[in-house]
Design brief:
The chain is about 65% helix and about 10% strand. Strands 6-9-10-3-11-12 form a six-stranded mixed sheet, sandwiched between helices. Strand 9, helix 19 and strand 10 form a beta-alpha-beta unit.
Length: about 550
């Protein structure tokens, strides 16, 4: 767990100040309760000494027996109540911490810029939610509490061993540093192995994602053998990393068990010698042996839990990397401004992740009531223009204004209500077609829904579905063809009556008749709107009011 101290502090932060105070109190109560329950063997040892010391004709002190039984009963009750209450409180606190982490991730993903998501491999980001987050939940709900419980048991038993016989206690406990040292060395070695394992697991997730999303292409191009061999190589590397990680960590529990048994054997021999010379009583010797055996379970339990905690803390580090990701500047204090009028790019230059410049000194204007077509070869920077206009990225230099207002000064809520975009790969969520179109808008009439569906040509497709607009769609239930997804995205864009409309290859993939009809209807509804169309469609270019041609990131005549 070296290098994870900051993660422990962050984990404590998720508990909150009040819960941290309660956690400390629960640990103290658990320790006291455990210490009390383990004084029972000591009391029994004293009673055994009394029995052994009886002379002929002596009688057992019944008052002592009664007092002993009463004390044991009180200890058992306190132990049961204390550990049960503390365990319940710690479980509730861990659930609250897990809830806070999940809420933090949800809030973070809503606030991180698009550039951050684009900079992280899709498989890696997916693994943090599908693999690392469950590991963190297991850490805070089970293993972290288990580590606390086992540690308090070890401390309580160690104290009682010293009280029973400090000579045997020191002898036995001298073996613990050796166990801890070996375990520490194995932990440091296995941490790097676990990180390599997680990297290979991420690569597997990425390849599986590509296989699913590109399945038709793989079949059409006959790439099955190539993809299969690549996946098998990565899978082999992951298996090797997995074995290396768990080979070292799995040695911890056997080493702890071996040292425990060695300590038991040594203390039995030395204790027997002390018993022979009268340096320890029979009751205390047997009591000490009980403590040695009682220490086995929490020590092995600590080692076992510790084995899982190492991997879970690596997952926590990866989750914290997401939670520490940079966020977009808050625009809550910005005044709401009207988003309408001309869109102007003035000497805009931009590059992704400090790489090759994608746009260079781009200047053009798109006016209300006109259709501006952005054209150019693939990779010329057309989609980047749309990304900048939507505020997904900020230009490296130059300015982008809407109605004379720099987009940096426009709050996000104004964007969502006044600007609509239909991207090349439209987003569809699990739900009905109606829900996908209306989305978060209220009071949308059936007439309005039917009108936008007719404009985009989606009504013809929906009319052939058994449940019409109430048909459930989504990537995991029923995947819409790309053409229909673009129609649906256009419906979603048009239904809000945006002031600015961005269509990125929106009619690509439609058959010529449907495409021409959609183009005609789009030109009928542009009155007062600023429309920017990214296209390779010659019909759209011919009908556009102005054409902006890009080549290698520059505007050309």
């Amino acid at each position: 767990m070296s290098g994870s101290l900051d993660s422990v502090h962050r984990l404590m932060d998720f508990l909150g100040r009040d819960n941290r105070r309660e956690l400390r109190l629960c640990i103290v109560v658990s320790f006291v309760a455990t210490a009390l329950i383990y004084t029972i063997p000591y009391i029994c040892g004293l009673f055994l000494n009394q029995i052994v010391g009886l002379q002929e004709g002596d009688v057992v002190d019944l008052n002592f027996i009664l007092d002993m039984c009463t004390g044991i009963a009180i200890m058992v009750i306190f132990w049961y109540v204390g550990t049960t209450h503390s365990g319940r409180k710690m479980s509730l606190m861990s659930l609250a911490a897990g809830k806070k982490i999940r809420e933090g991730l949800n809030r973070k993903m809503m606030n991180v810029p698009v550039g951050y998501v684009d900079s992280v491999p899709a498989g890696d980001l997916t693994a943090r939610f599908t693999t690392d987050l469950p590991n963190v939940n297991k850490l805070i709900s089970t293993d972290f509490i288990g580590l606390i419980v086992h540690t308090t048991m070890v401390a309580a038993i160690a104290i009682m061993m010293m009280v029973t016989s400090y000579q045997l206690g020191l002898l036995y406990l001298l073996l613990l540093p050796i166990t801890i040292l070996i375990s520490r060395r194995l932990t440091i070695k296995s941490e790097s192995d676990f990180r390599i394992q997680r990297e290979k697991e991420t690569e597997l997730n990425e390849q599986l994602s590509d296989i699913i999303s590109s399945h038709r292409t793989i079949k059409a191009e006959g790439l099955e053998d190539r993809i299969r061999n690549k996946f098998q190589d990565t899978n082999k590397e992951f298996t090797i990393a997995f074995i290396a990680a768990h080979k070292r960590s799995s040695l911890i529990a056997p080493i702890v068990g071996m040292n425990i048994n060695a300590g038991y054997l040594i203390t039995v021999i030395v204790g027997a010698i002390m018993l022979l010379f009268g340096e320890i009583t029979v009751g205390m010797f047997l009591t000490f042996m009980v403590y040695v055996r009682a220490l086995n379970k929490p020590l092995i339990g600590t080692a076992t839990v510790f084995d899982g905690v190492k991997e879970e803390f690596i997952s926590l580090d990866r989750i914290l990397e997401v939670l520490n990701a940079p966020e977009e500047e808050s625009d809550e204090e910005m005044e709401d401004v009207p988003v309408s009028g001309s869109v102007r790019f003035e000497n805009v230059s931009f590059s992704y992740h400090e790489g090759k410049e994608i746009l260079h000194d781009v200047t053009f204007e798109a006016r209300p009531g006109e259709v501006t077509a952005l054209v150019g070869r693939t990779g010329s920077g057309k989609t980047t223009v749309a990304n900048l206009l939507m505020g997904f990225y900020r230009p490296d230099s130059g300015s982008i204004t809407i109605g004379g207002v720099d987009i940096r000064n426009i709050p996000r809520k104004s964007y969502s209500t006044n600007i609509a975009a239909v991207l090349q790969d439209p987003w569809v969520f699990d739900g009905t077609i109606r829900e996908n179109i209306v989305y978060n808008r209220k009071d949308i009439s059936e007439e309005r829904l039917a009108w936008v569906a007719k404009i985009t040509g989606l009504d013809d497709y929906v009319s052939r579905l058994p449940n019409g607009y109430d048909t459930v769609i989504g990537n995991d239930i029923k995947r819409l063809p790309l053409a229909q997804r673009r129609m649906l995205a256009m419906c979603r864009a048009f239904i809000g009556e945006p002031k600015i409309l961005i269509l990125d290859e929106a009619v690509a993939g439609l058959d010529p008749i449907s495409g021409s009809s959609v183009i005609e209807d789009i030109f009928k509804i542009i009155e007062g709107r600023t429309v920017i169309i990214i296209t390779h469609n010659q019909a759209l270019m011919d009908q556009a009011d102005r054409v902006v041609r890009l080549d290698k990131g520059c505007v050309v005549d």
